[in-house]
Design goal:
The structure is a homodimer. Chain A is built from 6 helices and 2 strands. Chain A is mostly helical. The first copy, chain A, has 2 domains: about 80 residues, Orthogonal Bundle (Multidrug-efflux Transporter Regulator, Chain: A, Domain 2), CATH 1.10.1660; about 50 residues, no CATH class. The first copy, chain A, has a two-stranded antiparallel sheet. The model of chain A has no long low-confidence stretch (mean pLDDT about 90). The structure holds a DNA duplex.
DNA sequence: CATGGGGTCTATAGTCGCTATAGGGTCAAG
DNA sequence: CTTGACCCTATAGCGACTATAGACCCCATG
């Protein structure tokens, strides 16, 4: 059984689909522990870093904020603790995501309605889209 | 028929549901033309500013970026021009919005699936959420 | 006329999650 | 020994605001 040699930042980045600058950024904000350095001052990552970065990326792909990731990382190391907090974070994020979907759906509906009124061949002065974007004040008698 | 007196920035903000700082920000980035100033150096807005800011807010509420708003504002003043460009911007934004909805929907589905596997009463070491967030590498024999 | 409170002014820095740039150092292949 | 790919730090920029500090103005009340 061979022991794997440490990874350069480029290896780590490629293995996780992260950009090199982003890896350094995660280190700077304390998400990824600083690895030891080689003689030439290169970062030398261990498999543990790979695991951790993969965890971070997976969370980010799921839309968690970096603060939530930080909390999840912290919790994931407390093996004996109840997992209620984890559940709470995930549920909150799901709720937020569902709300965002609802908002965007409502919005898309409005956009479709606005766009459908436009004949497309007209000029700006008659454009239904511009008109729809120009809400009239109640006290404005010209509307 | 009475002529309306100029508005303070606070009046304008309240009338459009914008924050005062945001109004100043729109001026700084060239979206809202600088109004004349009073003796005390206060901004004094005309009805035209009200119209323009309402247009901006409506666009923002519909999710257009400030750059798109800038372009729409520019186009809306070209009364004789064809409205094809307006249509293009709106359609592009609708497409982007629909894509975002699709992304978030996929994401919410994954989150629901992950969360549903968690019994809630367990400890972190057995937490299905943490587990689901910890993707295993193919070359990692422990998975 | 003084005072107090609320609104306004500018300028600057912070937010989030990166991304880009400048100006260098290191390393391995040819 | 040179070339080119990689790595290093530090700093600034993105979008769309938001927050803060410190000063100024205006109006109503005493």
């Amino acid at each position: 059984m061979m022991t794997s040699s440490p990874l350069t930042i480029g290896d780590l980045a490629k293995a996780t689909g992260t950009k090199v600058v982003t890896v350094r950024y995660y280190e700077r904000i304390g998400l990824l522990p600083p690895p030891r350095r080689t003689g030439g001052n290169y970062r030398a990552y261990e498999p543990m870093h790979l695991d951790r970065l993969r965890f971070i990326r997976r969370c980010r792909d799921l839309g968690f904020t970096l603060d939530q990731v930080r909390e999840l990382l912290h919790l994931s190391s407390q093996e004996g603790k109840s997992c209620g907090e984890v559940d709470r974070i995930a549920a909150a994020h799901l709720a937020a995501t569902e709300e965002k979907i609802a908002d965007l759906t409502r919005l898309a509906g409005q956009l479709r309605r606005i766009i459908s009124r436009c004949e497309g061949g007209g000029v700006i002065a008659d454009c239904r889209i511009i008109e729809a974007l120009s809400p009239c004040a109640e006290e404005d008698e010209s509307c």
